[in-house]
Write a structure and sequence with these properties.
The structure is a single chain. The model has no long low-confidence stretch (mean pLDDT 95). Helices cover 2% and strands 33% of the residues. It contains 1 helix and 16 strands. The longest helix is centred in the C-terminal third of the chain and has 4 residues, at 216-219. The protein has 223 residues and is an all-beta fold. The two termini are 35 Å apart.
């Protein structure tokens, strides 16, 4: 497999820690790129949620990687993704006197995704960066077993997280190359890795598509 040399990692991925001030429109600069996804966590307080916000769903839409909750709407978390950082609101990602950690990924193309004769589900929105191997794909479930979905990376993805954003109480589904294509893991609870489930269609993702079953957790029709 060919790998891309990235001379400055901050041009593609960065970690930023800040102390909150509960002030709306607080600009965080010096990130090194315009993020397309942010994963944020309050480091000071126990029992606080993780927040995941991306440019595909929009800055007012949040998800919690530590829960099975559906997508929520909160306009107080992030106001915008900017050319060299992001702007915070006065909400839970910017609590006064609290330490917050933010992981930031740079996205890329939002059109021209590659498909082939196997591709079955067309993403409605996406953001793809082949340089750093990062891709966000939004699609509507069909309930069709062994559906192929293009990922746009041009290389085989080593990890996939999948989450229903509209169906409540659906856990985050995880594919990891090292665990094989027969099982799955989860982000939001501590069960051991499943090794006897065909959730990913018993298919190792290729350079164009990954495959999902008709499992209700990951391909429920209309979600």
């Amino acid at each position: 497999m060919a790998y891309t040399t990235i001379s400055n990692h901050k041009s593609q991925f960065a970690v930023n820690q800040h102390t909150g001030n509960a002030t709306d429109n607080t600009a965080i600069t010096g990130v090194g790129h315009q993020p397309s996804m942010i994963w944020s966590k309050n480091l000071t307080d126990n029992g606080t949620n993780h927040y995941l916000i991306d440019s595909v769903r929009g800055v007012t839409k949040e998800m919690n990687p530590n829960t099975a909750d559906a997508e929520g709407t909160d306009a107080t978390l992030i106001k915008s993704f900017d050319s060299d950082g992001y702007t915070l609101g006065a909400g839970s990602m910017n609590q006064s006197g609290k330490s917050h950690i933010n992981y930031l990924w740079k996205g890329g193309a939002t059109s021209g995704i590659t498909t082939n004769g196997t591709s079955m589900i067309t993403p409605s929105y996406y953001n793809i960066n082949q340089t750093n191997g990062f891709s966000i794909i939004k699609f509507a479930g069909t309930g069709v077993d062994n559906s192929y979905i293009p990922h746009g990376l041009g290389k085989k993805p080593k990890m996939i997280w999948l989450k229903s954003i509209t169906k409540a109480s659906e856990s985050w589904q995880v594919y990891a190359e090292g665990a094989g294509n027969q099982g799955r893991g989860w982000l939001d609870y501590g069960a051991t890795w499943s090794t006897s489930n065909g959730a990913w269609g018993s298919f190792t993702p290729d350079t164009v598509n990954f495959r999902i079953s008709n499992d209700s957790h990951m391909n429920a029709s209309g979600y």
